[in-house]
Specification:
Length: about 325
């Protein structure tokens, strides 16, 4: 029987983390205040946390910490890309740890959250007691190219052509720059058109294992949609503010940290090759390739694998 999310869990604390800029970062805690500290890192960039993200962890065993990254969701100013880099987010994570008086914690991250998890762990390995990854994104040139230049567009050529239709022929030659120019345009109509087109393309790809076709609601929050895509494209255009192969080149720094990796075998957003490579470089890690599953944590088989991983991690750390 597949394991399902834990029952709804109420937060017992939330606050806005002050930074050395105009950003204020939303942080919340749930579960057992005396339990194993675990930090949930959301995907995106540009996404955010919600109530269900607390439910991958046994609330009796874990002190569950979630935060919305700079410019995202409940963090303010929303959609703000200035002073918003990977280094800034890693600094925020460390500031959260210190403010909460946590010595070591487990990191749980999926997709872009997995990228941040690995980068933070490589920078602060002595602060990390365990790592759980889902749908690993290594943020290499090939990973970006797969999604936006030469890869998944061959699986969904019709959806891809629909996305490209908002750009001129010249703009298609430098597509990422063009998307960036559109989403940061002073023309609100251009911004919204681009945000909708990108969200529809990305949403169709990421939900390809689900039965129902992905659609955007007619009453979609225009401001939120634009802000979410602003942050996502800001990071993509800047190659996620890391060096090529940075995660792989520094992987030996976390070879002593327990690592559990979950990846859908049919994930066409972040290819399983990324997690397989990590497992090869970290032979002590545990890799679970989930058959007939894609990228999303909410897919039943992925949820099952993630909850088994969080249970296994708590048992390991309590030995």
């Amino acid at each position: 029987m597949l394991k399902e999310l834990y029952p709804e869990i109420n937060e017992f604390d939330n606050f806005m983390l002050e930074t050395n800029s105009d950003h204020k970062v939303y942080v919340e805690q749930a579960g057992n205040s005396s339990g194993i500290p675990i930090l949930f890192l959301h995907g995106g960039p540009g996404s955010g946390c919600n109530e269900n993200h607390r439910r991958y962890f046994n609330p009796e065993k874990y002190r569950i910490i979630l935060f919305d990254q700079r410019g995202c969701n409940r963090s303010i100013p929303n959609g703000h890309e200035v002073n918003n880099t990977t280094a800034d987010i890693l600094s925020d994570i460390e500031a959260i740890r210190k403010q909460l008086n946590i010595d070591k914690w487990v990191l749980f991250g999926g997709s872009w959250g997995a990228t941040l998890t690995l980068l933070y762990a490589e920078h602060y390995p002595e602060q990390v007691s365990g790592i759980i990854l889902r749908g690993t994104f290594l943020a290499r040139e090939e990973d970006i190219s797969w999604f936006i230049r030469d890869g998944v567009n061959k699986i969904y050529p019709g959806y891809w052509q629909e996305f490209l239709s908002i750009f001129s022929e010249d703009e298609k030659n430098n597509l990422l720059d063009s998307i960036h120019n559109h989403i940061f345009s002073s023309n609100r109509k251009t911004q919204f058109q681009t945000a909708k087109a990108w969200s529809l393309w990305a949403g169709r790809v990421v939900t390809h294992c689900l039965e129902d076709e992905y659609t955007l609601d007619d009453d979609e929050d225009e401001e939120k949609l634009i802000n979410d895509v602003k942050i996502e494209i800001h990071y993509a255009k800047n190659k996620y503010f890391i060096e090529e192969n940075q995660i792989i080149n520094n992987i030996e720094k976390i070879e002593d940290v327990p690592v559990m990796i979950v990846h859908g075998q049919s994930d066409i957003t972040c290819l399983p090759e990324s997690s397989s490579l990590l497992h090869k470089l970290l032979p002590e890690s545990k890799l679970t390739l989930v058959s007939n599953a894609g990228h999303l944590a909410g897919e039943p088989a992925i949820t099952d694998a993630l909850i088994r991983a969080t249970n296994d991690m708590s048992n390991l750390l309590n030995e």
